[in-house]
Amino acid sequence: MVVDTSTPAQSFSKLTPRERDVMHYVALGKPNKLIAAELGVSQRTVEAHRARVFQKLSVRNAVELVRTVMQSGEAPPLSQQYQDTEQSGAR
After folding, report:
1. CATH number at residue 64
2. 11, 29, 46, 70: most buried, per Cβ within 10 A?
3. What is the pLDDT of residue 76?
């Protein structure tokens, strides 16, 4: 087993732009099907990007990903849809 000793900032720099997009959607809690529709790719492509993000950042699941993203300051901005929902008070 290979242990990644790089810092989170170094790990984030290893991500491709598309992997970073997928990472942000996952961190927002979006399901693969919605991510695929938003990015105009297949669900299988999203699954592949997601797996590579988890591998490159040395996380095992979405919860660890969110924790890593939040601790690193790489947190994505709130989606416009979420912001609109929060402002209207609906959930």
Report:
1. 1.10.10.10
2. 46
3. 62
Within a domain: residue 3? no
pTM beyond 0.85: the answer is no
Q: What 3 state SS string does the chain have?
A: CCCCCCCHHHHHHCCCHHHHHHHHHHHCCCCHHHHHHHHCCCHHHHHHHHHHHHHHHCCCCHHHHHHHHHHHCCCCCCCHHHHHHHHHCCC
Residue 34 lies in a domain: yes
11-63: pLDDT as tens digits: 888 999 999 999 999 999 999 999 999 999 999 999 999 999 999 999 999 99
Whether 2 maps to a domain, the answer reads no
Assess if residue 1 is contained within a domain. Answer: no
Distance, CA of 1 to chain centre: 24
Structural domain of 44: 8-88
Tokens 């590579």 correspond to what residue?
52
